[in-house]
Specification:
- By secondary structure, the chain is mostly helical.
- It has one domain.
- The chain is 79% helix and 0% strand.
- It has 13 helices and no strands.
- Helix 6 crosses helix 8.
Length: 298
């Protein structure tokens, strides 16, 4: 085996591992909207956001304490606070508000633009410029899901769409910063410190919302809250940020183009929602875009 072969093998393993971890993160996130709808069966939108963040923060704090993880350096905190504001507070709150009026399937497709937004944020943060082929495929995928959304809403964006648009911008910033930080500190610590940093805000939101939004602990509500707190807000990010660190933010973000399609499947299987034929066409376009972005060279 030549020296070049020896260098190529670990690189290939790294890419496969990173792709697998990022994909696991996408699968975990694909269930977030159905789980949020279940949580809304017993919790109000503000209470749901505060409780999920508080539970995730406590879980992360325990993990950090048990692992004796030192506090990150001062240079990492601006990025960690971006993760906290975008992924722990902003995105959960705005998407939860949107899901009160928008269906799971509709919301999933709007958020399908998130990979492109993440790639753009990453390009600005790192100064790296993906290839023209990468951008063309990413824009095509984003355009496909945007067109699907407008057709589903008869060309008139709703208030729920406005919530979702704000959510994806905040989440894109959190994803890009988290992916960057995961190159310096372990991915699970990035999200752990993010939810811990957001814990005071999450606890305050929960405390203020609980008196105004009565809680009804149904089985769906408990299951949904358990999932969005332990998996959507913490566990899924552990795999996601590690995958980003291994294969890069732009390529990892494009794997998330498949997330709306997965969520559409969950909406049909778990929520009983109707899947339009147009979604199948969108699925083929999006999958083709994913294949193109994964083969393009940054």
């Amino acid at each position: 085996m030549t020296a070049q072969d020896s260098a190529t093998l670990p690189t290939a393993i790294t890419v496969r591992t990173g792709t697998l971890l990022a994909t696991l993160g996408v699968v975990a996130f694909s269930l977030s909207f159905p789980a949020t709808v279940w949580a809304l069966d017993g919790f109000g939108p503000w209470t749901s956001t505060g409780v999920r963040g508080s539970l995730a923060g406590l879980l992360a704090a325990i993990c950090l304490f048990v692992a004796r993880v030192p506090v990150p350096g001062r240079e990492h905190w601006p990025g960690l606070l971006t993760v906290a504001g975008g992924c722990v507070i902003g995105f959960p709150l705005l998407t939860t508000l949107a899901l009160q009026t928008s269906s799971t399937a509709h919301s999933a497709v709007v958020i399908g633009i998130l990979p492109l937004a993440t790639a753009v944020c990453s390009a600005f943060l790192t100064g790296r410029r993906p290839s023209p082929v990468f951008w063309a495929a990413a824009c095509a995928g984003a355009a496909a899901v945007a067109a699907f959304t407008l057709l589903q809403s008869h060309g008139l964006p709703t208030l729920g769409d406005a919530y979702l648009f704000g959510a994806l911008l905040l989440c894109a910033a959190g994803y890009a910063q988290g992916g960057r930080l995961a190159s310096h500190i372990p991915g699970w610590q990035v999200i752990a410190w993010g939810v811990v940093a957001a814990l005071p805000v999450s606890a305050a939101v929960a405390a203020l919302a609980l008196p105004h939004e009565p809680v009804h602990l149904t089985s769906k509500a408990v299951a949904g809250m358990a999932y969005i707190a332990a998996i959507s807000q913490f566990g899924g990010f552990m795999a996601w940020y590690r995958g980003m660190a291994l294969i890069g933010v732009p390529k990892a973000s494009q794997l998330q183009l498949a997330q709306p399609l997965m969520t559409l499947a969950w909406a049909v299987l778990l929520m009983g929602e109707h899947l339009s034929p147009l979604a199948l066409v969108t699925a083929l376009v999006v999958l083709a875009c994913i294949a193109t972005t994964q083969r393009s060279r940054a």
